[in-house]
Amino acid sequence: MNRTPKIAIIGGGAAGFFAAISAKQHWPNATVCILEKSNKFLSKVKISGGGRCNVTHNSPDIKELSMAYPRGSAQLRKAFHQFSALDTIQWFESRNIPLKIYPDGCIFPLANDSQVIIDCFLNTCYELGITLQVQQVVSKIEMHNDGVSIYHNEEIQNYDHVIICAGGHPKRSSLQWIENIGLEIVEPLPSLFTFNMPQNPICELMGTVVPNATVKIEGTKLSGQGPLLITHWGMSGPAILLLSAWGARILAEKNYHFCVLVNWLDHKKEDVLRQELLLTIGTHGGKKLANWNPTPLTNRLWTHLLERAGLSSDQRWAEIGKKAINKLVSTLLNDRFEVKGKTTFKEEFVTAGGVALNEIDFQTMKSKKFPHLSFAGEVLDVDGITGGFNFQAAWTTGFIAGKHALKPEKSA
User: Fold this and answer.
1) Among 60, 153, 319, 402, which residue's Cβ finds the most Cβ atoms within 10 Å?
2) Cβ atoms 112, 52 nearer than 8 A
């Protein structure tokens, strides 16, 4: 039989386009189409990284790269051997999209514009003859011995293989059509979010950045380290986002009402700081606390923290005693804030949850139950911290899903 095999990709996002391109390149005789439910493709790619698109992270070591994923780390570690961060860099640069590595390890297109990534995908699909369809709402899929039927827009289409790249969804109901075929769904929850601190005076310092802070969730072992940003609603920045990712399920169980402990001076120890403050008293005792800031913090934040420690900015260093020093040390290294609620990080959302990892063979991205069905991207219970890791997971799983789409199953 010389019938042309048909491959459908459900979802026109990052993973969907990468899966489609991989499928067509590995199976050039197949017809490949992307079915997108909205009226435009790659909408999340467009807004990511402030419109610049953080395509991946500078992590040549696969073990190190895999550690950036609170969920899916072990599975992705295997998958990265097929398509790594280095492969991503080579893939884009081979398509005349030069990339730039920033000091924090994030990698963006040199053009600093996500549109170059979108244009690359659209042009590649056009060159390969991949069919792109928008406003295609999939309501149901049926599994057969020789393929998959897709119900969309009151039509039924049959395909030899289907790759589901439907993205992350905040509600389990959005994944009901997948659950209906008998696959386990892990309850979706927000993964990357900022912390709300309603009416806390710290919010008056919005825009203040602390280059290195350590933040912990009180009563847990969760800890995040890195830049911290004070916002008009609370706290954000990499240190906070790290906490939100690793603590996604724990914080959801607390209904996003908990306390954070902030070390404003990174991981500096109490005895070291106490000696530094005593030295300040000895050498600058005649100066006012507000006029001599012995920390790397901004003067605005320093003054605020003095108030939190119960000290007057007009006091002189020589006037404060042992109790005041202890209180100041505690405030600088173990400041406590109540969190009530969360806010989505910018316009982006990342979810923990989705198709359970035990349902998928990460060597092929195929369903273990249904050989004609694969998954890629955030529809899986896989998510990474900020810094290009979520896109890397999309490229990797999409590439593998496309590569193995029409490969016959190994006999037992």
Assistant:
1) 402
2) yes
**Beta-ladder partners of 6:** 31
Q: Return d(Cα 290, Cα 147) in angstroms, integer.
A: 72
**Which secondary structure element, helix H or strand E, spans residue 210, and what is its range?**
strand 209-217
Whether residue 268 has pLDDT greater than 90:
no
Per-residue pLDDT reduced to its tens digit, 118-145: 999 999 999 999 999 999 999 999 999 9
122 three-class SS: helix
Q: What is the largest CA-CA distance in the chain?
A: 93
pLDDT at 1 over 50: no
The residues with which 342 forms a beta bridge, in sequence order, are 195
Q: Residue 388: helix, strand or coil by DSSP?
A: coil
- The whole-angstrom separation of Cα 186 and Cα 309 is 44
* Virtual torsion, Cα 216, 251, 349, 225, nearest 10 deg: 10
Query: What is the arrangement of strands in the sheet containing 138-144, beginning at the earlier edge strand?
Result: 138-144, 147-152, 155-159
In the chain, where the domains are located: 6-190+346-404, 193-344
Q: How confident is residue 412, by pLDDT bands cut at 50, 70 and 90?
A: very low
Residue with tokens 């640069």: 93
Closest CA to 67 of 13, 36, 105: 105
Query: Quick one: the chain helix, strand, coil %, rounded to 5?
Result: 35, 25, 40
Question: Which alpha helices (H) appear in 200-294, and where do they start and end?
Answer: 238-246, 248-253, 270-284
Q: Which two tokens stand for residue 362?
A: 């990460």
pLDDT above 60: residue 347: no
Tokens of 322: 């042992």
Rounded Cα gap, residues 216 and 214, in angstroms: 7
Smallest CA-to-CA distance from 187 within 244, 254, 258, 248 is with: 248
Topology (CATH) of 6-190+346-404: FAD/NAD(P)-binding domain (3.50.50)
| 299/245 Cα distance (integer angstroms) | 31
Judge whether 182 and 219 are in contact, CB under 8 Å. no
